[in-house]
């Protein structure tokens, strides 16, 4: 009888713990959703190019402004976070993203978009650095991996819905920039929700510095992994910002029809991330990385042979599906290789997200010189590198 009562009490206590954890976790998940607003870059670049008559090079420079901040701010934000706290830092990032949403509404011109992309890049960097460790503080010990996987899933939802909202605003109200008002309102609500939620934060045993992180590049495996994350983020942003152009040029569809391809891509990322969390329970991560890389290259090659608009969308879905898990697999490989240097490695690998600001402008230059399909070969080379890297990781066995 006493044992049964103890079990009942334990269940009640566990229920209270889970309820308390959910109360703290939900606003952090919303911060990841706001982080996904940075993916409006894909839609915004295509509309900006069309409405302002920009060259491919100038258009892709907008993307560079959104991602160069990962190289400049990642480790300094980590130092700032140690002093001010993670929740405060996440909210600061949300404020920057909110300002990035407000700018095009106040000044919708090329320079306004330059400012907007800059603010989005700064805000995205701040949230990226601070939201992951904050999720650790609100998660039960055995639920952290699940919550981090779900956070990327939530982020992908924002990326998937963005083009639909923009297209709806363009068709229904004749102004696609109304999407910025929707995002601004969500930013304000999320910031208030997170600020009003009490979250006890854990401190760090040590603090990463710029020099301690950069010195890790002297290790061959670390350097290869950082280059891999650099190229994969560049690939992801390059795909995101060129899907509309690919569909329009290859199949002569409208801007709005082409924008749906971005949502298809992000839907595939969502499915891929959800499936990868399940598959990794039975498969070693390095082997899964190899399979994903090979299937990604095969899917990418389909872009050059698909005969129609629907077939092109299928190819885009396959690319998103098989590339979805590559970045987190590379990130986890780095942390597993040097767990004792997790702080420095995390800062270094987040810095490599600046690849999203380097690869697309190069694609823009090649596009202006030789055409889109020639330019997209660069994205195929990024995927080819991951095949080499996955074989190296399997061979190294560590």
Task: Give me the CATH superfamily.
Answer: MFS general substrate transporter like domains
How many H/I helices? Answer: 17
Overall mean pLDDT score? 82
User: What's the N-to-C terminus distance?
Assistant: 51 Å
Work out the strand percent.
under 5%
What characterizes the major β-sheet?
A: none
Question: What is the CA-based Rg, rounded?
Answer: 21 Å
Please give the CATH class: Mainly Alpha
Number of domains: 1
The overall strand count is 0
Order of helices and strands: HHHHHHHHHHHHHHHHH
| Outline type | globular
Q: What features would you describe in this structure?
A:
The protein is mainly α. It has a single domain (16-396), classed as Up-down Bundle (Growth Hormone, Chain: A), CATH 1.20.1250.20. The protein is 82% helix and 0% strand. The protein contains 17 helices and no strands. Helix 2 packs antiparallel against helix 3 and helix 6 runs antiparallel to helix 10. The longest helix is centred in the first third of the chain and has 34 residues, at 2-35. The protein is globular, with a radius of gyration of 21 Å.
